[in-house]
Structure formats: C-alpha cells, structure tokens
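Run log, item B.
One chain of 56 residues. Sequence copied directly from the ordering sheet:
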Amino acid sequence: MQTILGLVLLVLDIIAILDVIKSSMSTGKKALWVILILILPIIGLVLYYLIGRKKA
C-alpha cells in the first residue's frame, strides 16, 4: 500500500512540475516552485495548486 501511495505522489509531483514549467511565470518563480515541490513533495504540491497556480 505504501508503494502505491508513493507512486501516486511521484506522478502528481511530476504533473505539478510540468505545469510549473509550462506556466507563464518568471524563471525565478518557476525555479522556486520546482525546488519547493522537490524538497517538500506533499506540502509543495498542495501549496502550488492552492496559491501558486493562477486562476484562469
């Protein structure tokens, strides 16, 4: 069970990082979000989707 949750988290982190890279943010902001997601996978992922992603 733990392995499945780890894989799900990895896939969600990769999706979030790709979303950051494709966004129109400045390079500095992109780098900070990617670092945050990599260092704190769960918290960084949640924070990015709550406050980092612009609402269209």
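Observations after the first pass:
- The mean pLDDT is 92.
- DSSP finds three helices and no strands in the chain.
Flagged for discussion on Thursday.
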